[in-house]
Amino acid sequence: MDRFTYPSFNGHTATRIMDYTTMGGEQVARYAYLWSNGNFVFIINGNTEDFTQTRALAEATGQ
User: Cα 46–32–37 angle (5° rounding)?
Assistant: First the structure.
């Protein structure tokens, strides 16, 4: 999976960043979504391996 992808939701394009952290001696993926809307920058970080949960949180902003 690419580290940077560019999904669209709520009428805009965001940047999804995949990073890895070590948990219990294993590398596990973590995801963040970033986008701007006018003068605001939104940064949504997740604490789960499932990017769909982090995306659902980003979509819930409505921005």
Answer: 120
pLDDT class of 58 with cuts at 50, 70, 90: very high
Interatomic CA distance for residues 60 and 21, integer angstroms:
25
- Convert 1-62 into a string of H (helix), E (strand) and C (coil): CCCEECCEECCEECEEEEEEEEECCEEEEEEEEEEEECCEEEEEECCCCCHHHHHHHHHHCC
4-39 confidence digits (pLDDT tens): 999 999 999 999 999 999 999 999 999 999 999 989
